[in-house]
């Protein structure tokens, strides 16, 4: 089977948000951060996804793939864009928005989010950036604003932010990747935000690959939650797109297609030339990295707790010696 045989389900993203496809294309999977595919192959995969009816794309400043997305969008100007930034001040956020507009060739960015907020305290620290997002929404540079997060507390606190339209939380059937609580607490926080009219689209539903051996169960879990309208799926092959979209459309999945997307175990590789600077540990949102002594009384190197790692690849971006990559 090739291609989705049914029209992509459209959902309303919150009370006041737009109608979008149930699936958002999570572009981290084709970005340099993860290195699964080449630039050109990523463009091809993304174009295929758009041809199947996916009508919005999730990216972030840190993914460093604006030019890749812009190339794929040449023939799809109607597709909506989501970007995210770690900006703290109003000036930084203004620069982030302008960078996205320029590099994506868009006068307006459909959604712009504060990236990886952790708590009410974190949101307070980013107040200047949030105020700039509200200003950008008012003057038309951005249509909808929100936050992305791996934290229960940030979902609850974010739901009370003035002007917020959307929250992008980590949620999957085992609660993998939640940094400050358990699955039940995250679902309750999501319910709270959704009942305030905020749009919710889930991230990491396959738990960074840890739950991809049973993809049907991972997808069913999300679609069964009434407070989640949509999901961002990281896909780096045509076969993954076909599997996910056909399954969600209720189409029969051939055994050949299922075998083609059977999970191949991936892991974070740390090269033996690691200098132990610790930058990766600071960048890891899951606290999956730490420094360990490799020579008694002397050299330390980074090590990873595989069960906590969600294979986001953020650590590799900050490594000055290119020691970390997902393989």
TrEMBL record:
InterPro entries: 4Fe4S_Fe-S-bd, 4Fe4S_Fe_S_CS, AKR, AKR2_Oxidoreductase, NAD(P)_OxRdtase_dom_sf, NADP_OxRdtase_dom. Pfam families: Aldo_ket_red, Fer4_7. Residues 265-294, 300-327 form the 4Fe-4S ferredoxin-type domain. One of its GO terms (molecular function) is metal ion binding. Keywords: Iron, Iron-sulfur, Metal-binding. This is Putative oxidoreductase of aldo/keto reductase family. It comes from Desulfitobacterium dehalogenans (strain ATCC 51507 / DSM 9161 / JW/IU-DC1). The lineage of its organism: Bacteria, Bacillati, Bacillota, Clostridia, Eubacteriales.
């Amino acid at each position: 089977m090739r291609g989705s045989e049914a029209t992509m389900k459209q959902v309303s993203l919150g009370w006041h948000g737009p109608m979008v496809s149930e699936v958002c294309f999570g572009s981290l999977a084709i970005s340099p951060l993860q290195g699964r595919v080449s630039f050109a192959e990523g463009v091809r995969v993304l174009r295929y996804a758009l041809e199947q009816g996916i009508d919005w794309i999730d990216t972030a400043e840190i993914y460093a793939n604006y030019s890749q997305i812009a190339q794929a969008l040449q023939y799809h100007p109607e597709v909506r864009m989501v970007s995210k930034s770690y900006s703290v001040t109003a000036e930084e956020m203004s620069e982030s928005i302008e960078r996205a507009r320029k590099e994506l060739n868009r006068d307006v960015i459909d959604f712009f989010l504060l990236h990886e907020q952790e708590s009410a305290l974190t949101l307070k620290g980013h107040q200047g950036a949030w105020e700039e997002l509200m200003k950008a929404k008012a003057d038309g540079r951005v249509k909808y604003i929100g936050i992305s997060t791996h934290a229960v507390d940030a979902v609850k606190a974010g739901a009370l932010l003035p002007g917020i339209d959307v929250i992008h939380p980590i949620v999957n059937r085992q609660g993998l990747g939640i940094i400050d609580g358990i699955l039940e607490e995250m679902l309750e926080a999501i319910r709270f935000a959704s009942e305030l009219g905020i749009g919710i689209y889930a991230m990491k539903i396959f738990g960074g690959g840890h739950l991809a051996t049973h993809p049907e169960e991972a997808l069913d879990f999300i679609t069964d939650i009434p407070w989640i309208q949509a999901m961002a799926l990281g896909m780096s092959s045509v076969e993954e797109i076909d599997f996910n979209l056909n399954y969600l459309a209720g189409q029969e999945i051939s055994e050949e297609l299922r075998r083609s997307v059977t999970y191949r175990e991936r892991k974070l590789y740390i090269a033996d030339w690691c200098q132990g600077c610790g930058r990766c540990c600071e960048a890891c949102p899951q606290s999956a990295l730490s420094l360990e002594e490799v020579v008694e009384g002397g050299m330390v190197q980074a090590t990873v707790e595989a069960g906590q790692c969600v294979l986001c690849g953020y650590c590799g971006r900050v490594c000055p010696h290119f020691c970390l990559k997902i393989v």
